[in-house]
Fold this sequence. Notes:
There is one protein chain. The protein has one domain (2-176): SGNH hydrolase (Rossmann fold). α2 crosses α6 and α4 (81-93) runs parallel beside α5 (119-139). It is built from 6 helices and 5 strands, in the order βααββααβαβα. The chain is an alpha/beta fold. It has helices at 9-12, 30-38, 72-76, 81-93, 119-139, 162-176; strands spanning 2-7, 41-46, 65-69, 102-106, 142-145. α5 links the parallel β4 (102-106) and β5.
Amino acid sequence: MNIICFGDSNTYGYDPRSYLGVRYDADNRWVDIRAAETGWAVRNLGENGRGIPAKAPDFPTDTNLLIVMLGTNDMLQGRSPEETVQRMESFLSGLTLARDRVLLIDPPPMALGAWVPEERLIENSRTFAQLCKELAERMGVRFADAGAWGVSLAYDGVHFTEAGHRAFAAGLLEVLR
Length: 177
């Protein structure tokens, strides 16, 4: 099985205890945990600071599953949940892969922290999750709600802790079964 994980710093495996873009060890990154436990070929295309691109890249045609988890950076930069989901719809519409090969995951809701100083951002992240679910249904792509997986966030209110990566990996496995 060939899987591509396309996302932001939480897909990349960013360790928020560092300020230089350092990643957690492979044993503590959800993408690598899934690859190790399943034996699947999993490519990590996570990138620190990535928002939803205006244009979808061409992913290899032998991709069995494209996992997309984006939107947090868009909202942190001031976009509303509605604007962010419009960007997501445009991105997903531009994919060349069949829609049944796409899994859209809404990021876990933000929490109060160094990067999330106000409740409005938390509410926006919850609204975005609901809008993503509706978008997935409308577009015929698979959907997973990472907000239900008990993902713990670091002091900044955005990035996964090591335990959060393990919880995310476990929740994803249940979805993929």
